[in-house]
Amino acid sequence: MADLTDRQQALLKAIVEEYIEFAEPVGSEVIERKYNLGVSPATIRIEMVRLTDMGYLRQPHTSAGRAPTSMGMRFYIQELMKEKQLSVTTEVSIKEKLMSQRLKRERLIKEAVSALAQRLDMLGLAIDDEGVVYYAGAANILDWPEFYDIDVTRFVLSLFDENPRLQEIIGRAVGSDPVHILFGEDMEFEYLRPTSFVFTKYDVTLEREGVIGVIGPARMNFPLVLPYVKYVRNLLNEAIRV
């Protein structure tokens, strides 16, 4: 990735966080009004053009504003954002639900998937070591403007009928990252472009792993999504080992 100046990083961070909250391309006047970057509107516009040329932002054809690309989102996740701390009451509440099912493997996984779906208002999913798919919160994605497009929603939900395609998408996440983030923009499926997948592996046995995570819009609130996914993964590992 290209080196970004401190000013460009501050601008990218502001644009990503504005876009995560409002799902609208961000104009220079919004940045000037709401974020104290200490530069003129003209400078903000010049830097937005530079970030676009570098691949961190894109300009949707119907708008004067800019939205982050998957490359911009990844830079934000890796370099700029700070993960939120889950509250103790939240952690205890999820832990009690999961641990109450620790002796019933299937119920445990369902509870974990439901916890993610409910807390993050997204579609939660898990695939166990035998390829069985669990999901919850399918209706949640309808709360997000990205899924008002019926073709996008249909394609995402069809993944649960066509298991091989879901396995293929999840199989793209290679490497040792503890949590994998896949952006639809980086895949060849047209209707996945506005979406993203966040998932992690959990230990079924010493040799076998399952996968758990969420599907939602590309502009997920990653500072919150990542700690939730990690926490539920850790609980699953703990419950399965009991």
The second-level CATH architecture of the largest domain is 2-Layer Sandwich
Tell me, briefly, the overall form.
Answer: globular
pLDDT averaged residue by residue: 93
State the order of secondary-structure elements, H for helix, E for strand. HHHEEHHHEEHHEEEH
Q: Structurally, how many domains make up the residues?
A: 2
Low-confidence stretches: none
Percent in helix: 40-55%
Tell me the number of strands: 7
Please give the largest β-sheet. Answer: 5 strands, antiparallel
Write down the CATH topology of the largest domain: Beta-Lactamase
> Would you identify the CATH H-level superfamily of the largest domain?
GAF domain
Computed over alpha carbons, the radius of gyration is 19 Å
CATH class of the largest domain: Alpha Beta
Which structural category fits the helices and strands? alpha+beta
> Between the first and last Cα atoms, what is the distance in angstroms?
43 Å
Task: Describe the strand arrangement of the main beta sheet, using strand numbers.
Answer: 4-3-7-6-5
Q: Name the beta content range.
A: 5-15%
Number of DSSP helical runs: 9
Pfam families: HrcA
Protein name: Heat-inducible transcription repressor HrcA
GO molecular function: DNA binding
Keywords: Repressor, Stress response, Transcription, Transcription regulation
